[in-house]
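Re: Re: token formats

Sure, here are both.
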Amino acid sequence: MMSAEAFSPVAIPLAAVIATPELTSRPRRAPDFEAESHALGTLLATLSTSPRSALQKLAEVALELCSAHSAGISLVEDSRGVPVIRWRALAGQFAPHVGSTLPREFSPCGTVLDRDALQLMIRPVRHFACIDSLAPVIEETLTIPIHVDGRPLGTIWVVAHDFTRHFDAEDARLLTSLGSFAGAALELLTSLDKTEATLSEQRNAVELAVAADRNENRFIAILAHELRNPLAPISTAAALLRGGRLDGAASRQISDIIDRQVHAMSQLIDDLLVVARLRLGNLELRSSLVTVSEIIERTIETVGPFIAARDHALVVSLPPEPIDLDADAVWLSRALQNLLRNAGKYTNPGGRIHIDAVRERDEAVITVSDNGIGMTSVQLNAIFDIWQQAGQEATERSEGGVGIGLYLVRRLIEAHGGTVGATSGGPGLGSRFTVRLPCRKPTRPTAH
């Protein structure tokens, strides 16, 4: 598309190229009602069976009925905030130019829309330099606006490329009739677009509902499995304790087993309760002044034993200067704990896990990265969705879980006004989670 400013100065005024009054003074050819009736029948058949091709058929019919050298339909569109005229359908010698654009404010079609009336122009390039590059040259063009809901939104036109063809009042009548048909076709296409969009939204909604129902059913099955798993060792341990034949060391070992299993169940139930509170909007944050280093140290204190038990190397990089936050230390630490546990679960024993923190302008940026199993692009797209773990196949769920840990991370970070994202180089190439939180705004000193 070229702008009007890019063209050479206008050679002659617009009035010199408009010759609409000549339509009534030129000899008028006799109407061919049989050909017109056949063409309209073809248009109706196209509109009913293949509405998307109706505009192209209209251009072809205009070319034939008016014995033109080129014909077309142009519509107003928005191109990066600038209105343009796009040639949507073309027939004849101009057919290779389909899809091209001209300025809305400085073009033959734009003038017709401004005047909202049929116009005959002779050698329009003398005024509109924007069409100087078009080949073959336009010797004469007859153009009429297309109305949709009473507004001129486009044009239908015919062109003569040499002086062997001059348009007359009969051509004006035919083009007016085709313009009305074009308006009806555009209204139908607009309605069709809206209907298809609605149907697409409905299909997407149904697919999402089916997927959510399927994942929720899987979640219930997995939850039952995760809750039942600890019961077997607890039941066995209780039976051994009831036998009364264990020495002190064995009793302590059995007690440790019960403690671990009860802790695992308690953690799972606690996570479920937090999810419920988050989804109901009942989670209350108690924000206070805390530093990023304090949050990370608190997190490592809790998760450190889990990381050490898997023989991972945990590398911590804290900022040299305090980064102040307005945050609930308990819940923000809980979010980071889930990220570290996630890294530990999906990194093979002996791996490396990094947690780093820096300040970038008004944000605290905390990253948790590992050299674990990594993720595919599909997994990355939904990793923070609730019950995402439940939506995976059992073979992919190498560490169990019900898929709410990263959902909790996202919701807790968002509750603090922040964001969390994940990246991965792919399977086997580790993962990186980045948390961004707004820094505490400095308070103004009070005047004395």
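Second one below.
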Amino acid sequence: MQHGTSGASAYGYGVLGRILGPVFHRYSEGYRFGRLACDLVEKHGFISYEARINVLMGGVALWTQPITTAIDFMRAPFASRPRQGILLTLATACGKRSQAFSSGMIRSTRYGASRRGSLDFVRRARFRDVADIIVSQQRFIATMQGRAATFSTFSDEQFDEATFEAQLTGDRMP
């Protein structure tokens, strides 16, 4: 702060905000640091950090804001994609957006939006681990909606839980 600000420092404030909540249970302060990061990006035009900070802010907003606010932050990187082209950030946003859907929006319309947008994107980008996370979240939603064979399994006519779990090998994401 004594020597000025940059996109990296704005990102640092966002990361600090992300850590404050789950580690120190200071959720409101975490949100405020996330807002600071967003404000710095907007004020100084740190466009190359905009998508990353929006993804961070989506996770932070889940703690203190309506879930729709978090989802709006997670959608924002897709609007800026042509300017930035940060594929990993977008894949992360897909995973977090899907998580937000499963956290509080277990409605069939939200499930469909999550499935079509996020999963298709990360599969095309070949982010297999993120795709598996999204599939797991979608199967949870399907189970909560009563669309699985029983409440204790994710399996139904179109999905076999055992086959899915068998491909989650140790050489993949822990």
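Confidence is low (pLDDT under 50) at residues 81-85. The longest helix spans residues 7-24.
- S.
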